[in-house]
Amino acid sequence: MASSQTWLLRPLQERSTQIFLGVLFSALIVVTFLHLFMPQDSALHVSAYTVTLLGKYLCYALLAVAVDLVWGYLGILSLGHGAFFALGGYAMGMYLMRQIGDRGTYGDPVLPDFMVFLNWDSLPWYWQGFDMAWFAFIMVLLAPGLLALVFGFLAFRSRVTGVYLSIITQALTFALMLAFFRNEMGFGGNNGLTDFRDILGFNLRTDATRLGLFIATGIALAIGYIICRAIVTSKLGRVSIACRDAEARTRFLGYRVERVQLFVFVVSAMLAGVAGALYVPQVGIINPSEFSPLFSIEIVVWVALGGRATLYGAVIGAILVNYAKTVFTGVMPDAWLFALGALFVLVTVFLPKGIAGLLQKRKKAQDDDDPATAQEATA
Amino acid sequence: MGILRSLLSLRLASLLALLMAIAAPAFSQTEEDPGQALLANLADASPRQMDAAIEAIVNSGDPRARSWLDAFGNNRLSRNKDTGQVVVVLRNVGRDWTIADPLTGENLGEISRRELDRVNINNAIRGKLEGVLAMLDLYSTNPEIQRTAAEAMMGKVNETVIEPLNNLLAQDLPARVRDRLELAVAIYQLEQGDAQAKADAITTLTGSLHSRARAALNNAVAGDDPAIAASAKAALISIEQKLKMNRAAETLYFGLSLGSVLVLAAIGLAITFGVMGVINMAHGELIMLGAYTTWGMQQLLPGQPGLALILSIPAGFMVAALAGIAIERSVIQYLKGRPLETLLATFGISLILQQLVRTVISPLNRSVTTPEWMSGSLVINDALSLTLNRLYVIGFALVVFAGLMLIMRRTRLGLEVRAVTQNRAMARSMGIKATRVDIMTFALGSGVAGLAGVALSQITNVGPNLGQNYIIDSFMVVVFGGVGNLWGTLVAGLTLGTINQILEPWAGAVLAKIMVLVMIILFIQKRPRGLFPQKGRAAEG
């Protein structure tokens, strides 16, 4: 009992985790304060729109942490994490659809609008139970977790690694995208799920609910971060790093490499699912484009920019890239893909360790130097 | 039906008239044109006299008879109330109609429609007229018109034309026309003839794949005569069997066609990814560049799509190869031995190239013309015709594949590429310039992507997303076939294409694609190194 507690709480004693959590929570508190207590016309006021935008960034950050866990610490470049994110999102979306009840356009008490539109007369079996929040929240973890379990079991058992694994994860998310585009699948086809009203009885369109979701996302990110830190600092984490660096040797040392890989992969998929579930109520829609291979590969570049195998780097990368995306698509939408493309090239060629690598290098330089001169340099 | 009987002599007569028209162009101007009387006769005729009037026109052998009767059938023949002249209405929209002289074809300008009195035609006459016109075409000396008329006869035979048709069949006819007409007569006999004629008709219809023939047999099966019904049923079953074979052949053709597209798209990747170990996510965009080169060539050479297409083959290769060299020199050479990073960087390049095309050219699809010798189809029989452009693409894919095999197996470059792939350090110590080989290999793989683009421009839309649509499929083909094995790529591409086409009819296009992807994912679990895995040291890493 005591040991399991220390296992999970050990990261809290690390300095890097403390700093990360400190920054995250102060940001949450500052945003909340500025949103609630600053007058509307003040320059410092944070609007509900911005709060939701920040909440969206935090969802992406959690997703990036999940990708960094498998890419940074397990050496698996997943180009299909968008699929787990979207599955979590769809699970949440289904719950939110059922919450609409008879307030939809067609007023059917049970069937979502798109099913009425397609002349379906009853709810498909896989939609059963999603009217209950607890069931939906379990499915948020279970749906991506199960997919990762089956896919990972098959892949790792037959020792598919490296580029092959990357390509088939991409094929996986591509196949799911095509499938979810089909109306017959029963997930709203092209349009996806939208027009949500409440979550857990709170109206999604009020500022208070949005703030609550933002804070919930921040807490989820903190917990996800702690879980990942706990995994990578545990013995299991060290074995997984060994798998990343020399899979064959680890196997020869007697470790069951595929089990380690499977465990970490499933945890990562579940974290991605949670990120998706928090994303959907804030954005207000989930559609098959979240499954697109482009989105999945974009996540990887967030991690690459922030710095692989650092976790906090993934958070920095996700927030920076998405902030840039918001700015670019607002100011000059055509240039965004150029910028993103250039980012891919520049980061991989010139910044292989990402921003976190730069920070570490600077810290190292500081440590090596005389403390006094280091202080001058930063001043 | 006197009109039609007299048609027998028509061929000679019309030939004669034609000769006269050529020999004496002044004929219609200097003397009273006999056509005038014929038309006046038709316009004046009461419905009962119309048969005779039409017969007179047909028997006159006038080369303009076809156009007069056409106009008559289309309600375009009118009479000017003032002058009594018979005219052809060219345009009957609005208040004033444009008219022309049926004798000279001269445009007579516009006239108020109140001034015109239409030469009326009733449905009975119209039905006969259609038969007459079809027969006129059957006697045509132009084989093209004759064949089309014979095609049109299918299922249109009635008691008015059966006799002249039989007479026509007694004459010397081109094989295809004879075949069609025999079928047409047989269909009629099966419906109207006596028992013996029906039995004969079934014999003729057995084995025909024409849908009309099948419809007629189906009716016969439902008919009263049990003997005829039984033999019709037997004929139908044999036709069904033949149809099934044809459908299978068609599926196979579509499968091979899709497969050869996949092979073309993937074969360049098989070189850069399979042989060099470089993951080039911008491969799809190199294909796109090839397709846009074709479009650009056609813009440069307007009106000569065929020449432009042929010139595009070397041009597309060069454009894509140069782009490939630029990518290799600027990015990939710095990422040697880091495949995952290469993947990300080249993906970035693909985004940039796509956006570049969107910004510079257009986000919309461009249309590339298919040259005449590539459009149309090769008709094997009534149920099976192969579109020519796909046939060309299959041939092109095979030629490209054979060319690449030759380069890899028989040239100095191929030898050096294989040496560098197997052991870079050893190859360098033997004096091979590894960097140069890298550049050449990448240029070759990229150039082949450009060739794929030229071919794809003929069968799909040319747009900024062209490459993106093929990149995942291409990787699947290479991985399925076994990395580093060109034969594997060929077999994998053709197999996947065919499987996709077999699944499509009962699963739908999207589901078939999903099933193929899932199948590959499962297959990779079973054989992680593809259909034809590399053996020995090359398999490591």
TrEMBL record, chain A:
Q: Which UniProt keywords apply?
A: Cell membrane, Membrane, Transmembrane, Transmembrane helix
Q: Which domain of life is it from?
A: Bacteria
Q: Which InterPro entries match?
A: ABC_transp_permease, ABC_transptr_urea_perm_UrtC, LivM-like
**Gene Ontology terms for molecular function:** branched-chain amino acid transmembrane transporter activity
Q: How the protein sits in the membrane?
A: Multi-pass membrane protein
Pfam families the record matches: BPD_transp_2 (PF02653)
- Where in the cell? Cell inner membrane
Membrane-crossing ranges are 19-37, 49-67, 73-97, 133-156, 163-181, 211-232, 260-279, 299-323, 335-355
Q: What cellular-component terms does GO give this entry? A: plasma membrane
User: Is Cell membrane among this UniProt entry's keywords?
Assistant: yes
Q: What is this protein called?
A: Urea ABC transporter permease subunit UrtC
Say which species the protein is native to.
Answer: Marinobacter halophilus
**Native organism taxonomy:** Bacteria, Pseudomonadati, Pseudomonadota, Gammaproteobacteria, Pseudomonadales
Automatic annotation (TrEMBL), chain B:
Tell me what topology the record assigns in the membrane: Multi-pass membrane protein
* Entry keyword annotation includes Transit peptide: no
Subcellular location(s) of the protein: Cell inner membrane
The GO terms this record gives for MF are:
transmembrane transporter activity
A single BP term in Gene Ontology: amino acid transport
Give the signal sequence positions.
Answer: 1-28
Main localization (coarse):
membrane
Q: Name the coiled-coil region(s).
A: none
UniProt cross-references to InterPro entries, sorted A to Z = ABC_transp_permease, ABC_UrtB_bac, BCAA_transport_permease
Q: Which residues cross the membrane?
A: 252-279, 307-327, 339-357, 391-408, 439-459, 471-494, 506-524
What does UniProt give as GO cellular component?
plasma membrane
- Assigned keywords, A-Z: Amino-acid transport, Cell membrane, Membrane, Signal, Transmembrane, Transmembrane helix, Transport
> What's the family?
Belongs to the binding-protein-dependent transport system permease family. LivHM subfamily.
Protein name in the entry: Urea ABC transporter permease subunit UrtB
Which organism encodes this protein?
Marinobacter halophilus
User: What gene codes for this chain?
Assistant: urtB
